Amino acid sequence: MSEQVFNEMEKQGHEQVIFNYDKTTGLKAIIAIHDTTLGPALGGCRMMDYESEDDALADVLRLSKGMTYKCGVSGVDYGGGKTVIIGDSKEKSEGMFRALGRFVQTIRGRYYTGTDVGTAPDDFIDAMRETDCIVGRPVEYGGGGSTAITTAYGVWQGLKASCKAKYGSDSLRGKKVAIQGLGKVGRLLVKHLIEDEGAKVVATDISKDAIHEVKSEYSQIETCKPDEIYEVDCDIFSPSALGAVINDFTIDKLNCDIVAGSANNQLQEDKHGDMLFEKGILYAPDYVINAGGLIQAADEVKEFNHGRVMKTTSKIYDILLDIYKISKEKQVPTYKAANILVEDRLDTVAGVKKNFLA
Ligand SMILES: NC(=O)c1ccc[n+]([C@@H]2O[C@H](COP(=O)([O-])OP(=O)(O)OC[C@H]3O[C@@H](n4cnc5c(N)ncnc54)[C@H](O)[C@@H]3O)[C@@H](O)[C@H]2O)c1
Is the CB of 9 under 6 A from ligand 1? Predict the structure, then answer.
């Protein structure tokens, strides 16, 4: 087992993997720190009933590496980390999160964590009793509140940059955007598109209530059935519900010039990013365009400031333009261009840091 772990760490470039077991609560948590070139590692804590410890380890290694790229591209001074708790999220307890807090504290500021799938901001109130290294805190505890506002703002900026790259102008006036999912982020995106841009919106959701609520505010939007959204004749398809929506079954249905939305892991596999590129559909890499929430969480490490968060989030516009430029110059799909941008930043910062002792 340990040989396997080291092989994987070497292959994926991890710095540290910590196995934590608390004998009082039975907490089993793995913390992975991928890369701290840019600063302390940052990444949420996922709680899942993994089928095996190997599955949990594979997940934490994959997710922590992903955080290095997400932090790197967003311009924040943090590296990639992640925690997984092995267990049923219905069986959470104060003790478990206090124990997690104590383990995180032992890493002494090299890693900050917070909520992810299976955990909620309130769980970390217990962890905060034992550690200073918690982000995504409830507002009463110095947190920034819902990240949906920042995320939707960043997605809006990303849509504008994508239009600039594709059509030469960043105006969305008259552009048709097909939105999949009218949840916390999707409905705020509708607001930006209608009120700030004068765009046309076609939207769908599996929840009739969600559609009704958004329609009652913006009667001008069109709606369609959930499985019809891929085929809508539009300028931009904006996934804002689920992952893996760009896949073998949907890709030929797409009738858009741009794919740009908030959902995580939109490409089922990398090859689907290659296919979008070959079809001439501009893809805004998901971890870049949806980085607003991460930027907000990172800001909490110092002292949350809404204005600063929005300012940093607005840079998603320029970052995407840089990625599109690399993609065009090197003739590589945009998801690969984003990785090139991050790796260049890591090399530069590592170089600067080793030049002399500051
Ligand atoms: N909230 C954030 O700050 C944030 C940050 C980064 C990424 N994301 C990602 O953005 C996406 C949206 O986030 P959210 O916070 O709005 O989530 P949410 O749960 O509030 O909303 C998701 C919406 O999608 C709908 N939906 C589910 N399956 C659907 C389907 N098959 N077709 C159409 N609609 C469907 C749901 O009914 C719900 O209304 C998620 O993928 C999330 O992981 C969110």
Answer: no
